[in-house]
Design brief:
Length: 316
Amino acid sequence: MDTVNEHVHCLIIGSGPAGYTAAIYAARANLKPVLYQGIQPGGQLTITTEVENYPGYPDGIQGPDMMVHFEKQAARMGTDIRYGLATNVDFTKPPFKVQIDEEKWIEADTVILCTGASARWLGIESEQRLNGYGVSACAVCDGFFFKEKEVAIVGAGDTAAEEALYLSKICSKVNMFIRKGEMRASKIMQQRVIDTPNIKVFWNTEVDEILGDNKVNAVRIVNNLTKEKTELNVSAVFIAIGHTPNSDILKGWLDMDESGYIKTIPGTAKTNIEGIYAAGDLQDKIYRQAVTAAGSGCMAALDAERYLSSLPQPPK
């Protein structure tokens, strides 16, 4: 391993609601946190438009503006906020070592990991162009904006089924596109979808294109068996084909589930290595909300503070 360039007390990797909240609490506890923002400063909220379900914003707020507020608050408390991406780790023993941008090694007495998860996308051009303008990867976040409208959802697993059922309570009609002739969701979830009158399931169907200039107007689908293409007028397309936790550099070090989400001890942000903590979507595949991510960031900072307080203090 290359020479360590810097030693810090508390190192935070990631800058979404979890990372910035951890930074606020760590700074107030005088842990002198250093936070690296990662590849997408502000996290997934920076590609979200209106946020109406975060407490304290009665009129709603744009996702990017909200993350600017988080960042400013963390900085005001004393967090050293830096650009940079964690590219490698060595958690053999404390102090723990993290490589930044494939060149600089930092050692830290404690590390809080908030690298988040990335939504999986279909990979079509219109999907990214209209992201935030009717294309979304979170029905719970954005379904409300399409109340009484006709929408579409893509996916075949439990998450897709749950989101389709959620949307069915808000939207006039939900068109569900499933690539194969069967769903991957549990039997009970499949039955609930089929029993819901305003959900229409399209089997063996994929999205060919999402149509619209400044907002979603329609979706063009293709039947995988007949190759027939059809256009449906919808106001939104929800992509529910899963998320990928940003945990690649942590493999081999921390306990993970089969999907790569970090396992934490229930009720804490503690990982299997004492002094290493995980918060936000990196360890939460169930809720995935800004408010729950922020809450877990708070937990991680408090856990880190208690851990550091328990260490033998060097003589003055």
